[in-house]
Amino acid sequence: MNKHWTRRALCAGLTAIALAGPAAAQPDATYPAKPIELIVAYGPGGGTDLVARLLARHLEKQIGGSVVVLNRPGAGGGIGFGELARAKPDGYTIGFINTPNVLTIPVERKSSFHWSQYDLLGNLVDDPGGFAIHNSNAITTLAGLAAYAKANPGAVTVGTTGTGSDDHLAMLLFEKATGTKLTHVPYKGAGEVRAAATGQQIVIGAINVGEVLAYQKGGTPIRLLGQMSAARTSLAPQVPTFKEQGIDIELASLRGLAAPKGLPEAVRKKLVDAVAAIAADPAFKQQAEAMYAPLRYLAPTAYAAELERTEAGFRKLWGEMPWQDKP
């Protein structure tokens, strides 16, 4: 009887192992078995694109597979965000989501995505907004810009990364604070805004501080009139904030990693752990600092809380001051 019981127990145990063991371990053990696509919802050359390409190299080392960056610009980021939300939740499609666009687009119009439709993997960058102008322009302060705009209504063209972006909202808030009328010129990414500012096709490039500094280092002839951080950032201590210049605007762009909702738990954990490890890696920090990317790591739970709080603020702002471009 004991022998029979032992044989039955052994068979049952082997069956349980066959059913539970490999199946439970398989997602983590085999992932990634093919290249991972990392979607950037803006064109090449912008701050998100540059950080994405740096991150891809580190992610490959962390998870042991190749990562391919795909640029999906258009609709203020809406095309890329939508593609990410619709992708198969298997860990082979991840992407950057950018505030405020990922929050403001669903507020202003029907969209195919919402931040709650993603598995958040962690935020990496918090880059304050800025107003940049060509070096040859005589305007040197925000007060000077406001004076010129008042004297020439509509003549100040402002390039942004799209309707509802932090750049666009900053422009509208500047108009409201100074009683001016500016002209909005949306582009598909900060790289295009930089090119337009360089060619003096626009007066102001509404470009995040880190991006402006990186462009300056590369020889782009633009300078910052002000930065939209609460205090002067360590990246640009010589540039006064908007608040210092009497204009109460504080806006920034969070850039974090996300995946379609519903990742297998083992895959999700592997990606979350990889992002956290990269954010803490001294080599990554040094390389990000060299490209003027202001890092601010937020774990998924803290990231979700930040997005929820910020979305509530934008919904309130939409009720007070809808930001859609007027025809």
Overall description:
By secondary structure, this protein is α/β, with parallel strands linked by helices. The chain is 46% helix and 19% strand. The protein is built from 11 helices and 11 strands. The strands form 2 sheets. It has a 6-stranded mixed β-sheet with strand order 2-1-3-10-4-11, with helices on both faces. It has a 5-stranded mixed β-sheet with strand order 7-6-8-5-9. The radius of gyration is 23 Å and the shape is globular. The termini are far apart. The N terminus is likely disordered.
Largest sheet entry? 6 strands, mixed
* Percent of sequence in beta strands: 15-25%
Helix content: 40-55%
Order of helices and strands: HEHEHEHEEHEHEHEHEEHHEH
Q: What strand order characterises the main sheet?
A: 2-1-3-10-4-11
**Helical region count?**
11
| Class by alpha and beta content | alpha/beta
Q: Could you give the count of β-strands?
A: 11
Rg over C-alpha atoms, rounded to the nearest angstrom = 23 Å
* CA(first)-CA(last) distance: 87 Å
Q: Tell me the overall shape.
A: globular
Question: Kindly state the mean pLDDT as a whole number?
Answer: 89
**Segments where pLDDT lies below 50 for 5+ residues?**
1-27
Topology:
Blueprint: H1 2-30, E1 36-40, H2 47-63, E2 67-71, H3 78-86, E3 93-98, H4 101-108, E4 118-128, E5 130-134, H5 142-151, E6 157-160, H6 166-178, E7 183-186, H7 190-198, E8 204-206, H8 209-217, E9 222-227, E10 252-260, H9 265-280, H10 282-290, E11 295-298, H11 300-320
Parallel strand pairs: 1-2, 1-3, 6-7, 6-8
Antiparallel strand pairs: 3-10, 4-10, 4-11, 5-8, 5-9
Helix pairs in contact: 2-9, 4-11
